[in-house]
TrEMBL record:
PANTHER family: BETA-GALACTOSIDASE RELATED (PTHR23421). This is Beta-galactosidase. Its EC number is 3.2.1.23. Gene3D superfamilies: Beta-galactosidase, domain 2, Beta-galactosidase, domain 3, Galactose-binding domain-like, Glycosidases. Residues 1-19 form the signal peptide. Residues 382-564 form the Beta-galactosidase domain. It catalyses: Hydrolysis of terminal non-reducing beta-D-galactose residues in beta-D-galactosides. SMART domains: BetaGal_dom2 (SM01029). The keyword Metal-binding does not apply. One of its GO terms (biological process) is carbohydrate metabolic process. The keyword Signal applies. It comes from Mycena indigotica. Keywords: Glycoprotein, Glycosidase, Hydrolase, Signal.
Amino acid sequence: MLLPKFVAFLAALGTLAGGQRSPRLTRQSQTDVLQNIVTWDQYSLIINGTRVDVFSGEIHPFRLPVPSLYLDVLQKVKSLGFSAISAYFFWGLHEPKRGAGISFEGFRDLQPFFDAAKKAGLYVIARPGPYINAEVTGGGFPGWGTHTSGLWRTSNASYVEAYTDYMTSIGKVLAKNQITNGGPIILVQVENEYSGFQAPYTEDFEYEANLKSIMRSSGVTVPLTVNDAWPGSHYTNVDIYGYDSYPNGFDCSHPDVWLSDAVPEYFWGAHLGINPQAPNAVYEFQGGAFDPWGGFGYESCAQLLGPAFERVFYKNQFAMASTVLNFYMLYGGTNWGGIAHPGVYTSYDYGSAIAEDRTLREKAYELKLQAYFRSVSPAFLTSQPTNIFATQGSFTGNQALKTTQLLDFVGNKTAFYVVRQTDASVNDDQTYSLTLPTSIGQLTIPTIGGSLALNGKDSKIHVVDYSAGSTTVLYSTGEILTWATIDSTDVILVYGNKGELHETAFKFGAAIPTANVVSGAGKIKTKLLGNGGLALQYVTSGQTVVRVGNVLLYILDRANAYDFWVLNPATAFGQSFVHSTQKNPIIVKGGYLLRSVTASAGALQLTGDFNTTQPVTFEIIAPQLFQAVSVNGAKLALAKTPQGTLTGQRAGSLPPISLPNLASLPWKTADSLPEIQPQYSDASWTVADHKTTVNPTPPNTTVVLYAGDYGFHTGSILWRHHFAASGLEKGFNVGVQGGAAFGFSVWLDQTFIGSWKGDGALSNFNGTFSFPSTLSKDSQHVLTILQDHMGNEENWWAAGEVFKTPRGILSYSFVGTDKTASGVWKVAGNLGGEDYIDTTRGALNEGGLFGERQGWHLPGFNDASWVKGSPMTGLRHAGVAFYRTTFTLDIPAGVDYPMALVFTNATATTAAFRAQLFVNGYQFGKYVNNIGPQKSFPVPQGILNYNGQNTLAVSLWALDAAGGHVDSLRLVTTARVESSMGKVANAPSPGWVPRVHVF
Ligand code: GAL
């Protein structure tokens, strides 16, 4: 399936080539700023007078409804070397009922998120919408939008009226948290990918201007930005225009296949054509991929967009001078409750660097290498590329390699050379030498013989005349990891793949020191280059440390480079919000994760995480005044390394825990489809009797059978049709629409007559279901139809109304006759519809199954009268059952043991059943056995109570006449980590109380 944005993008390519641009409106300029804290020029953002590399990652607080975990994720991001995060906010969650106010209560409160960012020292790019896309239901638009007239994403009055309250309210929240008011927000994005306009509609400048003016009148003074779907010159009248890019696509089925020309080089030219006065800002660059129902699973996506992708594509963005660069997603989280649009399932792991369970993938370490390098390379912030496109053979003479040169046009000293394969699809090994201009004349590198290597899907950044403290690195083919001046020694860390030959050369004055290996097994060759130049040649393998004059050079292979952490003691600056600073760095070789360092009276206190009980060897590169070091409160027994740094060992402590065996717990069950019983009364259901609708899809039925028109926007929907038979009805034909992978089941009175079991690619289905026998004349019947609502569609096309695509019954007829007198239709969805009951867990968390309407999924519901039975026994007929059990957990403090509920049924087998998992009332899993792919459902600590009782409820909808059951359901840990993260407060989990108007 081609995503709408790619269709639009292809159509627009012609326009780009022709250089046509949309008219420009005024933007905040450098002479007319509303504030002077965040400014910019053609190179970079300047915050409080200092140029900043905005190296950012996308995180959505609403996809992690445990605010006390925000800091854990954000500290990890900070430790990886990021300076910023970016976040969408989701209108539909904040205003599920029109006119009932904008809720910032509970998990919808943004303050804890901004506070955590501030505490972690990260800037924030805030992206409130109103439209966000983001794979959320309706693309962020509230459900009530589906029954609101007007073309959305235009200046249509009805739409403007719809978003004004939300945008004003959130604008005020953002204004309060701007950097100008002491908060972390540096940029605010209006709209999202306002880029695709289906004829006859075009870019609506009035709409754009109104969004900007609402932000300004709400008090937002920091620069406004926009995220164009490609550098397509839309909505350019914001302050700092930018765009997004997903160059490896979303098909995770062939995770090793890249297109030859996948690396986007035209960005630089496009940027110069659109907004050369501002930095080349990329507000979303691919950090992973979403995965659809029936997809290949996030481990495949993590491979497609893995470390090799990061090296090649992110270094290309370096070559394009993207000094504002945000990765989407850095931490994806979970589509719990009804957050997802139909194109994705419960997990929004995204194959990101930080996995859904908050653990670090190898991708995170590759990002760290790049982030650290960028953050100690201020010359990059004033550099621009000098050659693009026809760069094959440049500087290397090897046509199979492309090399882009970036020159620092302000410092006029440093140059960067970014090398990669000309054909991105190949895995060939290349050898090369670099012929480069340097301050001591042109050099062909390696200068000591041999050749450089670029093996397979890789890319490298080689520096020339690069400043590291008082040292000038004349050139280095070993990539710079970081450097710091510590006790007046310039400590420089370089790395390469294991076994690669590299050279690093220094420019000394008249006296050229000798280079000596002080530790490690590596050997060096040296050569005097003349004019003060001294070259060192080495092979990157393990860790070797060389002293040369005032320089301590750490030569590392990639695996060793991954182990280094650069920490900045916040207290040294007497302020809690340090943002991204390179001051007073302490470089520590450690293990899985180091989070923070505090310095006091000759001692350093480190905090970090251990994912192994094997001893981890630390090396602490810090000023000599620190002679004592503790990790997570435990003192390290220290020794001195030959290079004079401190070293010590510590093993992680991973205490055993016991987890409940879910299969052997006492489970209770009850029927959750009493609606088909003769005594059931639907008297208090909503009568579906609308004759008209504002929905752009014209109804094909005598009454409107769109669930959204009756206020139901999530979960399961039930329809009931009461009719008197004419005596000829032999069956029922019905067209139902629920979104991709949806299913439905149909009963005539008490008799199951069939199901549509679903297909990952189909949003609607027309089914014919035979009655057991022809109905007799004047007999009274009721048809019950249970359907899935997979979320509302996104609305990528501006001025389109795709998100209004109905969920419900599109058509129906009886087989055998068209003379059946039209009867009454009734509908039930989540109890209360837009007046939803569970304000704590939000409007999308519960659907319309009988058990959900009763609140059976909530803790404290009294199931004493239920019979014994578990989802492992399941149902022997089509229908719906609810299951409940409780268990306690007692997980010790000081560890992070993320858990998941795991099904062992083979997905994509024929048994058609759907299950929802409710943990302490929160829906954290929607499992579709016959479609998949998700079987493991992570549930964060805080939703799971790690020290007390938990209620697990499971709804099981068997779509087959034979019924269905879960082969097994287990609670497992997905990682075991000794952790220095903060204490986790459980998300509020109000228990069952009698419900009013329940039916
Ligand atoms: C972008 C969009 C994001 C998200 C992403 C795919 O085009 O701006 O909101 O949908 O695609 O994950």
